[in-house]
Amino acid sequence: MEVIRRARATDIEALVRLFGAPGEPLAAALRELMNTPHVTLVVAEDDNGVAGTAQLTVLRGLAWEGAPRGLLEGIRAARRGVTSALLTWGIDEARRRGCTRIHLDSGLNRGDLRDFYARFGFEYSYQGFTRVL
Amino acid sequence: MADYTIRRARREDIGAIVHMLADDQLGATRDDPSDLKPYLRAFDEIDADPNQLLMVVASGDDPVGTLQLTIIPGLARRGALRGQIEAVRIHADHRSSGLGTDLVRWAIDESRRRGCGLVQLTSDTSRTEAYRFYEGLGFAPSHTGFKLKL
After folding, report:
1. Angle at Cα A28 formed by Cα A27 and Cα A32, nearest 5°?
2. From A60, A114, A132, residue closest to B45, measured CB to CB
3. Mutate which: B25, B75, B114, B147, vs A, most A CBs within 10 A
4. By three-state DSSP, how is residue A44 classified?
5. Going by fewer Cβ within 10 Å, which terminus of chain A is more open, N or C?
6. Concatenated DSSP letters of B19-50
7. What pTM was estimated for this model as a whole?
8. Does the distance separating the beta carbons of A73 and B79 come in below 8 Å?
9. Regions of chain B short of the pLDDT cut 50
10. Do A102 and B150 lie within an 8 Å CB cutoff?
11. d(Cα B96, Cα B85) in Å, to the nearest integer?
């Protein structure tokens, strides 16, 4: 059973493993994340250590009467069960912070993922666009 | 030819911005400019955060377009900062004059200036003409989004 807790600077090794990215830029990003008030970075820990991570960003906008919205992203997990625990955490935390809706970004729109997210109540709703700078 | 300027939104612009949000196929059902109190509360919070920029394009001093840019750190893509563009609206009387393009270009430049590795935005799956607009500005479809109402 996983325990979800806030990420710490000492989690960097596990995060490097989960993201498969070099340590130095990731350590700088981790410091930035820990210092950004609207961002909560968590890790899921089981008996063998860190098995997953997720980022919840609470965004404020004027639309929807100015209600905050949660953006759940950067999910990396060793197993589907860990992803489930992170999704459940993200939904609960967004609700606790007064968000009226939560968005989940996924690189993929595979049918099996759609079904998986649907179990948590998520519906396919938008197309994401990116421009690399 | 009207004189347009892009500037940060001010408190007195909020009524005009909410009108633009409500005058929209999706916003019409969820936004109501008759009571600005909740919007002003949200504006004060956005305005106090250096990583959130609520912008307007103004004709003279009147807002005729709006966009929000939020700078978000993250671990993906080697820990790149991202610029997130949201709530792009142009007043019905000023559409097709390139203002949307100017606003989005401004957000791309600002994101670059702040060291972002990418700019991202999302568009509701029902807004098909928006897809062409963003692709014309160099955006590529990259991910899908899921939503849950809480």
Report:
1. 115
2. A60
3. B75
4. strand
5. N
6. HHHHSSTTGGGT--TT--HHHHHHHHHHHH-T
7. 0.91
8. no
9. 1
10. yes
11. 20
